[in-house]
Amino acid sequence: MRELIVGTRESKLAMIQTNYIINQLNKVKVKNPIQIKKIATKGDKILNVALDKVGGTGIFIKDLETLLRNKEIDFAVHSMKDLNPEIDEDFVIAAVPEREDPRDAFISRNHLKLADLKPGAVIGTSSARRGAQIKAIRPDLVTKWIRGPIDSRIEQLNNGDFDAIILAVAGLNRMNLSKEVITEYLEIDRFVPSVAQGALAIQCRKDDKELINILKLLNDPLAEKATQAERYTLSLLDEDERAPIGVYAFYKNNQITIHTSIASLEGTQLLNYAATGENYQDVAQEVAKELISQGALTIIETSKQGL
């Protein structure tokens, strides 16, 4: 029987996610032995520069894709928000498992909610989107760059380097830290999350039909469709995926709602628009058209120049 090699980043969260996928494959009676190959990607090695200045979240993916192309691994487990809207034509997302909570979590040292922080309080984030959304709501706060694994960021908070930090709820849930550390869940109508936040993507070579059929056993159709809609919406606005843009889609009663926000880096301009319909491409195009009519492209380009 064919042994499968899965590639993953070596962070604690990445390993938890990869082992989760292996356990899920075992639950659906996949008998193939699976070996884990851990690597430190460029994004994991460069911790003294903001992500937006070194190529965005895509730098977490490229090294794993090189291993896939060279057939050193058979598939890779990614946080889908790290994938660019358009993936290399040699690869395919074989499965999108059931999605975790897509929201952002606000974590403060003294468990003060965002509205209760004193003016001048320092918020740590590695995301231009999160920083812009915070400034739009609390322009009296200061946002500062923070990098590193989840546990490292929480340690920096506890050491007093920041008054609060913002992290994805999904990662905290997967590490069983949510009850321990989350001060406040930032609701999606005000803090639209990153595209595909909370979703995992299992990527393999497009020509590996045997493996695709195996991995498809883990696919969740609603998660796949919603993240597909989000990625398509982003591609209509910013293919580089570098501007402070949030997109969240969900299905209800066979209709999809796509909620999108675009902010200037300083938070002085914030556009929000949501639309609902049956076809995600039609809805995405309506959202993009409306936001562009409100000046979205100018905000996006100006923001990218300021990163």
Question: Could you describe the 3D structure shown?
Answer:
With 307 residues, the protein is α/β, with parallel strands linked by helices. The chain folds into three domains: 4-97 and 199-219, D-Maltodextrin-Binding Protein, domain 2 (3-Layer(aba) Sandwich), CATH 3.40.190; 104-186, 3-Layer(aba) Sandwich (D-Maltodextrin-Binding Protein, domain 2), CATH 3.40.190.10; 231-306, Double Stranded RNA Binding Domain, CATH 3.30.160. The chain has helices at residues 12-27, 42-45, 62-69, 128-137, 150-158, 169-174, 178-181, 209-215, 221-237, 280-293, 296-306, and strands at residues 4-9, 34-39, 75-79, 91-95, 104-108, 122-125, 142-145, 164-168, 184-186, 200-205, 245-252, 255-263, 270-277. Strand 6, helix 4 and strand 7 form a beta-alpha-beta unit. Helix 9 packs parallel to helix 10 (280-293).
Q: Give the strand order of the largest sheet, numbering strands 1, 2, ... along the chain.
A: 2-1-3-10-4
> In CATH terms, what is the architecture of the largest domain?
3-Layer(aba) Sandwich
Structural class: alpha/beta
What is the β-strand count? 13
- Tell me the series of helices and strands, N- to C-terminal: EHEHHEEEEHEHEHHEEHHEEEHH
How would you sum up the global shape?
globular
Overall mean pLDDT: 92
CATH homologous superfamily of the largest domain, by name? Answer: Periplasmic binding protein-like II
Which strand-content bin applies to the residues? Answer: 15-25%
Rg value:
19 Å
Helix content: 25-40%
Instruction: Give the oligomer, counting copies of the same chain as homo and different chains as hetero.
Output: single chain
Number of helices: 11
Terminal Cα span: 49 Å
What is CATH's topology name of the largest domain?
A: D-Maltodextrin-Binding Protein, domain 2
Supply the CATH class of the largest domain.
Alpha Beta
Tell me about the largest β-sheet.
5 strands, mixed
The total number of structural domains is 3
Unreliable residue stretches: none
